[in-house]
């Protein structure tokens, strides 16, 4: 897999007169962390860091096995695993 060095930018209005760029890569990570906190962390009464790790690992396993609208209702495993298998076979 080749990672692009070029950042992906999108133009949007920051104020009434000037446009600005907003980095799209950060949006994905911020949305992931928001979902983790709202769907798992905030619902538990946390007593120690081991509990946070256990809750996070369980939620990430759940997140990777549920269908995502951005992937045409496929799970991330179903969407990305065929490409990994083809690359490993080569």
TrEMBL record:
Coiled coil: none
Protein's name in the database: Transposase
Any GO molecular function: nucleic acid binding
Region (Disordered): 69-90
High-level lineage: Bacteria, Pseudomonadati, Pseudomonadota, Alphaproteobacteria, Rhodobacterales
InterPro entries associated with the record: Integrase_cat-core, RNaseH-like_sf, RNaseH_sf
A single GO BP: DNA integration
Chain intervals with Basic and acidic residues compositional bias: 69-80
Span of domain Integrase catalytic: 24-76
Organism, scientific name: Ruegeria pomeroyi
């Amino acid at each position: 897999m080749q990672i692009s060095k070029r950042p992906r930018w999108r133009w949007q209005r920051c104020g009434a007169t000037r446009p600005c760029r907003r980095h799209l890569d950060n949006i994905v990570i911020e949305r992931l962390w928001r979902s983790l906190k709202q769907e798992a962390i905030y619902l538990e009464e946390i007593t120690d860091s081991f509990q946070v790790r256990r809750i996070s690992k369980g939620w990430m396993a759940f997140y990777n096995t549920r269908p995502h609208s951005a992937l045409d209702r496929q799970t991330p495993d179903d969407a990305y695993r065929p490409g990994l298998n083809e690359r490993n076979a080569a």
